[in-house]
Write a structure and sequence with these properties.
The chain is mainly beta. Helix content is 4%, strand content 65%.
C-alpha cells in the first residue's frame, strides 16, 4: 500500500549483565581434614560477576567475564583440630577475567539457555594466620590460570532488559609464599574450586 512503512526489528547481539551469588567451595578447598595438606577449610561465601556476551548467530557466541570471589574459613573447626583457641584466619579471595565460546539454545521466544567454556587469569589472596593479635603467617597474593565452565538461563523482560540465573564452576591453583620470623619461609599450592549459584539482571543492545 502506498505510504506504508515496514519496520524491521533490530536483532540484538550484545548482552551485558551483573550476577551476584553464593560461592560454594568444593573438594580440597572445603576440606576440614588437617591431615590433608591441600585442605582449605573454606566455607560458603560471596561472588559477583560482570559479563559481556556477543552472539555471532542464534547458537554460537563469545563471552568475557570479570569476577570476584570471597570465602571465609571454618575457624572453629580449625581451632578444634589445632588446639589453638585464639587462632585467627580471615578469608580466601580471588578476582580475575575469563573469556571463551558460548553455545546458546533458544528455549522459546523469550528464554535462552547458554553453555560456556572459558579460561583466563586470576589473582588470589591467602588468609592471614594469627593468634593473640600476633601474625604468624602474613597473607599473600598470587596469580594463576583459571578454568571455568557454566550454564545460564536468560529471560527477556522487555525494554531490552533480561533476567539471568545460572551456575559457574571455577578452578585455579595458585602458589602462595609466606615468610615470617615465627615459621620462616613457607610455600604452598592451594587448589581452589568453587560452584557459584547466582541471579542477576542485564541489558541487551
Amino acid at each position: 500500500m502506498f505510504g506504508q512503512e515496514t519496520k524491521t526489528a533490530v536483532e540484538k547481539k550484545s548482552y551485558l549483565s551483573v550476577q551476584p551469588g553464593i560461592s560454594f567451595p568444593l573438594g580440597n578447598f572445603t576440606s576440614r581434614d588437617l591431615s590433608n595438606e591441600d585442605a582449605g577449610f573454606a566455607v560458603a561465601g560471596f561472588a559477583i560477576d560482570l559479563a559481556y556476551q556477543y552472539e555471532f548467530d542464534k547458537n554460537v557466541g563469545i563471552a568475557v567475564q570479570g569476577f570476584y570471589n570471597r570465602n571465609d574459613v571454618a575457624i572453629r573447626k580449625l581451632r578444634d583440630q589445632t588446639g589453638v583457641p585464639n587462632l585467627s584466619l580471615d578469608h580466601w579471595q580471588f578476582l580475575g577475567l575469563v573469556a571463551g565460546p558460548v553455545f546458546t539454545y533458544p528455549i522459546s521466544d523469550k528464554v535462552k539457555g547458554d553453555f560456556r567454556v572459558m579460561g583466563g587469569f586470576a589473582t588470589a589472596n591467602s588468609p592471614d594466620i594469627a593468634t593473640n593479635g600476633t601474625v604468624l603467617a602474613p597473607e599473600d597474593w598470587s596469580g594463576a590460570g583459571v578454568f571455568q565452565t557454566g550454564v545460564n538461563c536468560r529471560v527477556d523482560l522487555g525494554s531490552n532488559a533480561f533476567f539471568i540465573g545460572g551456575l559457574d564452576y571455577r578452578y585455579l591453583s595458585p602458589k602462595f609464599k609466606s615468610n615470617s620470623e615465627f615459621i620462616g619461609l613457607v610455600e604452598a599450592t592451594q587448589k581452589m574450586s568453587t560452584l557459584k549459584v547466582g541471579i542477576g539482571i542485564g541489558i541487551a543492545f
